[in-house]
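Bug #77: duplicate submission created two jobs. Keeping one. Sequence:
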Amino acid sequence: MVDTTKAAADPPPRIVATEAAADLLRLLVAAHGGVMMHQSGGCCDGSAPMCYPVGEFIVGDRDILVGLLDLRLRVGERAVDLPDGADAVPVWISGPQFELWKHTQLVIDAVPGRGSGFSLESPEGLRFLSRGRAFAAAELGMLAVADPITGQQWEAGRRPGPAVVPQIVAEAADACPVQRRP
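Kept job's structure:
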């Protein structure tokens, strides 16, 4: 179920996806079933968000759930309940990397190009790309009251509430506006 009304003073989601990324995720779900993502910490894949079939990437006990992307949603819609099954795309990051990025909203985008051979989108001619937006001080204050969910807590059944603000945006610039000089 979705809601298109605007929520006031709700905490921002830690994860946002562009319409292009959500469409690519829907394509991958249609081909592979449920998927999950893990924000890579570097090495040979750079820091690309990697997409895997559910169960093919072992989430560590200390990994942090950045958010649960809801593939039922379109641009500007808000969920009123949690997605399940293939509509739910958990996005993870390692605990130490989360500590470095916790002040940043991750914006998952899809752009032309070839990504990593390990990520499901590789043969599609598109790749996932992480963009970031630093949270404002007031947003950080709202986020500070809720502990993030760890892999261990997820395994024990803990889930986040539904996203109370839209998490699908038309373009990355909608989440990360470029400030112009006067």
